[in-house]
Design a protein that fits this description.
heterodimer; A: 406 residues; mainly beta; Porin; 16-stranded antiparallel β-barrel; two-stranded antiparallel sheet; 19 strands; B: 425 residues; alpha+beta; Cytochrome Bc1 Complex, Chain D, domain 2; 2 domains; 4-stranded antiparallel beta sheet; 3-stranded antiparallel beta sheet; 15 helices; 13 strands; 10% strand
């Protein structure tokens, strides 16, 4: 980590430690940690770890799938991919200090990334300090993206194109929970190095927030202005969790060696998410809106507003008894509806809508022999209209996926 | 009667309906091919597998979004070929190019020293887009044309075009088309050499006419062949350098500050060649409803009112290095000549020896598919100023004025027949 990151990290940890209030007993903290681990905030810890070496546990997940798609009658045939092989390390250094790290291999060894490497220090149930390579809490998916938890082979478009999941950034912040009545309220607030110029300087020919991610940001911020992200959520027992979150950052390099070389350009994302788990099934919703300062010379071609959303419904329809498997094996039906608009607005020359829109419909049949493993068969039908709004291009096909924790 | 006991085997039967999508079959659930006559990006029939491989490589480059790391910019209009030519069809007016210059006592000056003749109205962050400089006497917007079937137009012999000319209207029909002639600069001569094919006694295209080359591509016929058109578009539209144009475009209004930092040429000769081959080997557009009685009648009317004098229905290629393009009769509805279109279409801008009111006859093939590639609203004429075919016909002045008057004198039914014919192209 270079100077800027160290400065922010150490200053933040020291400041919040002094303001954090009295330290409670370790036993109480353990009880609280164990009692409520299904909040979105706890997603990174809500994983099975099967092997322990001393105080460190090792686990992970693997995800692979097959694809067979056609776009307007043309397809590439049948293909298979091993999308991800992720290894977790989890260590309880002391009752109040935890470390978690995740190393991700995508498509074999095509991409290798340290996706998470963070230290949590629990001052009290209502205050924890977190620093390292974190997952900014935008929406639900970014912190809860493990494939074995989802019945759909593809990640939601809103969670990959607007919220650039998996978004890992180096930084620090605070998090915690309050318990007013029966409601659990959680909060997260972080400063991170943020995204870079790739949001508009990319090979997409349009505004593309995921292209603003860069490994270089793990070492040094490109503009010396940290991104701020946060999430406030409430969970009501028996109902579920709703959350509102934001992310805002200056993304471009506007000063070089003290001289201003560009206007300051900001990207801001606002997200809403909701989840409920009922006896009849689960519903997950996420909607995100992005506002991006784009150079005037790129406007219209590069969108300055984007939005997307999805709703997933999963219903268990059968719990078969299978020899050698626990009773909670389930066969589940699911449906995802999603929509993405990468360029909200109208053309100044014609007054007509700028499209660049995608709508998708994804029914699924999934079998979970255990809660940690899912076999999922998806049919995916996607309608895309280009920026000009030319006749819709339809892509459709089948995917069969396997994902399991280990 | 007691119900039979449900066994594990019979329970499995309950989930079979869930797999019904598989049983329904692919046809209902997976999109089929669009109609052959609704697309413009199909390859020529009969390409060998080896030719198809190069064609598809060119297709990929045509669709590729070039990034700043690839060398796009620093000033540009678009970042890929298919942004302007979606589906290889006509482009949307938001991608109109602006070209400008100044008319002086020595003729038209494209103002190259001031960034002319094309305005790059977009720029990478950290660079400024161009603006039209002071002192310009003419500026024209150029809507992106369809790029399909261009290999046929390129393969027409120079002699065929020269024979079609009637610059002094010797036949007295009011039509006086002439070929565009471009100075044999070093660059154009090199481009002509690179594309010269001698399959008989001597080259039949890229020949010199009074020391100049015949232009045939572009609204003003400012390019002599597809290689010329492609390197110009890569540089002027996208800011991509090639062996032929190895220097980036710079915004001279900002003092020629630094280039984009990418080693030139940014486009290799193999990529360039695959792009040119792709354009050569795109099939001509196929017609729709051509046997409908109204379309047949409209075709006859199109000829009788004089439209076909410039929008020549039939041309024939000469000898080509590609057998699929050699000695082929085809139907582009153009004569590739310059015609005076009257003051309404005189934007004060020109190229080569064309007068400012002269435009190369636009091929009409694929016309009926315009809206499908322009966002549902068709735009016509060189800058998209006409929103209907009737409006477009109404803008034909100069050598087209007599045909326009003849069309306007038709009965409503006959006008509809002409329009039905145009939509069938």
């Amino acid at each position: 980590m270079k100077q800027g990151g160290v400065r922010y990290l150490s200053a933040g940890l020291i400041t919040v430690a002094f303001l954090g209030g009295p330290v409670e007993g370790a036993a109480q903290a353990d009880t609280i940690l164990a009692a409520d681990t299904i909040l979105a905030q706890e997603g990174i810890y809500n994983r099975p770890f099967i092997t322990s070496v001393g105080r460190t546990a090792i686990g992970g997940y693997v995800e692979g799938n097959t694809n067979w798609f056609k776009e307007d009658g043309l397809g590439e045939g049948f293909s298979m991919e091993l999308r991800r092989f992720n290894i977790f390390l989890f260590s309880t250094i002391s009752p109040r200090i935890r470390l978690i790290a995740e190393l991700e291999f995508e498509h074999g060894t095509e991409e290798i990334a340290l996706e998470t490497a963070l230290i949590d220090f629990r001052v009290s149930p209502s205050l924890g300090l977190r620093g390292g390579i974190i997952l900014p809490p935008i929406g639900f998916f970014n912190q809860n993206h493990d494939s074995p938890n989802w019945n759909f082979v593809e990640r939601p478009l809103v969670s990959t194109e607007i919220i650039p999941s998996t978004l890992s950034e180096v930084g620090f912040g605070v998090f915690g929970k309050f318990f007013p009545g029966k409601v659990t309220v959680s909060y997260d607030l972080y400063l991170t190095n943020g995204l870079r110029d790739g949001i508009v300087v990319n090979d997409q020919g349009r505004t593309h927030i995921p292209s603003g991610k860069s490994e270089e940001q793990f070492g040094e911020d490109n503009n010396g202005s940290p991104a701020l992200s946060g999430r406030l959520a409430a969970r009501v027992p028996g109902l579920g969790e709703v959350g509102g979150s934001f992310y805002t950052a200056k993304y471009n390099t506007f000063v070089i060696e003290g001289d201003k070389v560009d206007d300051v350009r900001r990207v801001s994302i606002l997200a809403f998410d909701a989840q409920t788990s009922q006896p009849w099934g689960e519903v997950r919703v996420e909607v995100a809106l992005a506002d991006i300062d784009v150079p005037a010379s790129l406007s219209e071609l590069f969108g300055d507003r984007q939005w997307g959303g999805h709703i997933d419904v999963t219903v268990p329809v059968w719990r078969p008894r299978m020899a050698g498997y626990p009773r909670h094996s389930t066969l589940e039906l699911g449906l995802r509806l999603e929509r993405l608009d990468m360029n909200v607005g109208t053309f100044s020359t014609t007054g007509s809508n700028i499209f660049d829109e995608t709508t998708a419909f994804v029914p699924s049949i999934s079998f979970r022999p255990t809660s940690d493993t899912v076999f999922s068969f998806n049919y995916r039908r996607e309608w895309h209209r280009d920026m000009q709004g030319n006749p819709t291009v339809i892509t459709a096909g089948y995917q069969f996926g396997l994902a399991t924790y280990f | 009667m007691p119900r039979p006991k449900r066994t594990a085997r019979t329970r499995w039967l309950r989930v079979l309906p869930l797999f019904s999508p598989l049983l329904i079959g692919c046809d209902l659930l997976v999109p089929g091919l669009p109609a052959d006559n609704a697309i413009l990006d199909a390859p020529l029939d009969g390409l060998l597998p080896e030719q198809l491989a190069v064609h598809l490589a060119g297709d990929e480059e045509f669709a590729r979004r070039f990034s700043p790391a690839d060398g796009v910019g620093p000033t540009f209009n678009a970042t890929s070929c298919d942004q302007c030519h979606v589906g290889e069809g006509k482009g949307h007016v938001i991608f109109n190019l602006t070209r400008f210059g100044r008319m002086g006592p020595d003729g038209f000056d494209p103002l190259r020293e001031l960034g002319g003749p094309q305005l790059q109205d977009r720029a990478l962050p950290g660079f400024l887009p161009e603006q039209i400089p002071a002192g310009v006497t003419g500026a024209a917007a150029f809507m992106p044309p369809s790029v399909t079937g261009l290999g046929f137009l390129e393969a027409v012999d120079d002699a065929t075009l020269l024979a079609l000319q009637d610059p002094d209207d010797a036949d007295g029909d009011g039509i006086s088309g002439r070929v565009q002639l471009l100075d044999a600069s070093t660059v154009i001569s090199e481009i002509a050499d690179l594309e010269t094919v001698v399959l008989g006694d001597s080259p039949t295209r890229g020949t010199l006419v009074d020391g100049q080359f015949i232009g045939r591509f572009g609204r003003k016929a400012g390019s002599i062949n597809l290689l010329h058109q492609t390197v110009n578009a890569l540089l002027q539209d996208m800011g991509l350098t090639t062996d032929i144009f190895p220097r980036d475009l710079l915004n001279v209004q900002t003092g020629n500050f630094a280039e984009d930092g990418v080693i030139d040429p940014e486009i290799s000769s193999s990529v360039l060649n695959s792009l040119v081959f792709y354009l050569k080997t795109l099939r001509e557009p196929l017609r729709r409803d051509e046997t409908h009685p109204d379309v047949v009648a409209g075709d006859a009317l199109f000829g009788s009112i004089g439209c076909a004098d410039c929008h020549l229905p039939t041309l024939r290629t000469g000898v080509s290095e590609l057998p699929q393009l050699s000695n082929v009769t085809f139907h582009p509805y153009t004569d590739l000549l310059l015609h005076d279109m009257g003051p309404e279409l005189d934007d004060g801008y020109t190229e080569g020896r064309a007068l400012t009111a002269e435009w190369r006859t636009t091929p009409l093939w694929g016309l009926g598919l315009s809206a499908d590639f322009q966002g549902g609203q068709a735009f016509f004429m060189h800058d998209g100023r006409a929103l209907t075919l009737t409006d477009a016909i109404g803008l034909h002045g100069g050598e087209g004025a007599a045909s326009r008057a003849a069309f306007q004198a038709l009965s409503a039914e006959d006008k509809d027949r002409v329009l039905a014919f145009l939509r069938s192209l």
